[in-house]
Amino acid sequence: MSAHPRILVVEDDLSVVQGLLAGLRREGFDVEVAMDGADAARRILDEAFDLVLLDLMLPSMSGFDILDAALGRVSVPVIVLSARSELEARLKSFALGAVDFVAKPFWMEELVARIRMRLDLREAQPNRLLHLGACVVDLDARTVTRDGVDLGLTAIEFNVLAWLAERPGKAVRRRQLAAHVLGFEADSDRTVDSHVSRLRRKLGPEGAAIKTVWGIGYRFEVAP
Q1: Per the omega criterion (within 30 degrees of 0), is the bond before 168 cis?
Q2: Same structural domain, 13 and 93
Q3: Per the confidence metrics, is the pTM higher than 0.70?
């Protein structure tokens, strides 16, 4: 990480943008702005940022869509900044990979403290790697590769894999996956089952590590 961490502010309210630019640059951050959702998603995928501040209500592409499209493919901490402070918005943001949620209006001092905490944590912790047969699961970079080739998991598929893999040998109920991983997207057991089915197909032979526990849900089990 550089001496001046690079932050992308994704926000379409000019007054908020101006306040963030002034406050964050004063603290020594290198700050860039995207005021359109589709442009923000492209930049997150194509450029290297140390952290993203993301509004949810944006032109052309919502913040939820950006989280879903980008966080399954790149590793960057995202803090959501939104006037939508209801629980559903918070839980869905976390389910899609956001590391923090700050409701508007906010104190600049608190936001800066949260940013510094996330950047310090990212710098201090080594990547957590899980070896699953011929696959390597990087829990921090949010990637799954086989022989160096990314398997292209979506954000939700990765969340399902990570949630199960971090609880080896334990039966996880479908409703647990729905509540803690899929957020409010899942309205039935069939939704969970379809995500798991697609995940298994992408993992190939390693997908056998996800065992079905009939009448309950799933269990992650790797053969010794």
Answers
A1: no
A2: yes
A3: no
Cβ-based neighbours of 30, under 8 Å, separated by 6 or more: 2, 4, 5, 6, 7
Establish if 1 belongs to a structural domain: no
Asked, for residue 91, whether it belongs to a domain, the answer is: yes
Q: What is the CATH number of the domain that holds 44?
A: 3.40.50.2300
In a domain, 109, yes or no: yes
Per-residue pLDDT of the chain (224 residues; tens, 9 = 90+): 456 889 999 999 999 999 999 999 999 999 999 999 999 998 988 888 889 999 999 988 899 999 888 776 777 889 999 998 888 888 888 888 888 899 998 999 999 999 988 887 555 555 678 888 889 988 777 789 998 888 988 877 888 888 888 888 888 888 878 776 665 444 567 788 888 999 999 999 999 999 999 989 999 987 65
Contact 184, 132 (CB under 8 A): no
Residue 36 sits in the same domain as residue 114:
yes
Give the separation between CA 184 and CA 139, rounded to whole angstroms.
23
The structure tokens 């990570």 sit at: 162
Q: Tell me the residue type at 182.
A: L
108 within 8 A of 115, measured Cβ to Cβ: no
Q: Give the structural domain span for 144.
A: 129-220
The answer to whether the beta carbons of residues 182 and 192 sit under 8 Å apart is: yes
Question: What pairing do the DSSP bridges indicate for beta strands 210-213 and 217-220?
Answer: antiparallel
Residues 170 and 97 in one domain: no
Helix axes 63-70, 87-95, angle to 10 degrees: 20
- Are 117 and 148 in the same domain? no
Whether 93 and 140 map to the same domain: the answer is no
